Structures are given as C-alpha cells and as structure tokens.
Amino acid sequence: MSKSDYTAFFALDPFFDVVLEGLRKFVDGEHYFDTLAEDVLFEFLYEFPGWPRETRGRDKLMALYSGYGSTIRLERGDGLAVHPSGDGRVVTLEYEVHGRVLKSGSAYHNRFASIVFIEHRKIVRWRDYMDSLAAWTALTGAT
Question: Which pTM value belongs to this model?
Fold first, then answer.
C-alpha cells in the first residue's frame, strides 16, 4: 500500500514517524503498517480499560488503531533511543509521543518502551510498555 492509503490513521503519524526512524535500518515498508508481518503478534503489557492485552494480525491491529484519531491527536514524537541486538532481529525502542485529547483539549504526553522482533525485515512481534497512568490522567482529567 502507499502512504496515502493510510490517511485514516493521520492522528498517529508522529508515532509512526518516530518508530520508523528507529527501525528503518531493520525493516522494509513505506508506512508503519507495511513493516508488519500479516500474522504479527502485538502484546500490550499494561492495564488500560477497554484495551486488549494482545492482538494478532496486521488487519486486527489496524482495526484496533482505527478509532485513535477520534480521541487523541498526536502532534510529535521524540526522545527516541534505539537498542538493537547484535544481529538486528530484536530492537528495543524508547520514545515519547505528545498531543492533545480532543474532547477536553488537555495535553497528552506519554513514554513508551517497545521490544520489536523482526524476521525477514518484517515485524513479527511487538511487546509494548507505556505509562498507562499518563494516558489515564489525560483521557479522564484525573489528577
């Protein structure tokens, strides 16, 4: 697919950009979703109401991310640190994303660590850790 085929996911572009910056030497694909194997396994290793602990398959991940832009709009991604294994088959990424919660206008800032497993230049598994308290606070207005 071309990058224009993913316009529905524009709210996540800063996330896509920062992780692709970290993975470009290890994976192939124009867009983040193009770097994923069809049967990719995503593990979300945090507790967040309404969010699954895991999902399998590129199409299911795209469906999961499809509603993101109705809640949060990311403005930038930064703080990237890339830690590849010696053979480049496992890459740990540390990064941050920043944006706004659309309903309240509140700032959204979150930190992530993602462990990415790569085979044949495609992502086959992604283990994601985030600051779930930061997300919860931004979305609910809790302090």
Answer: 0.89
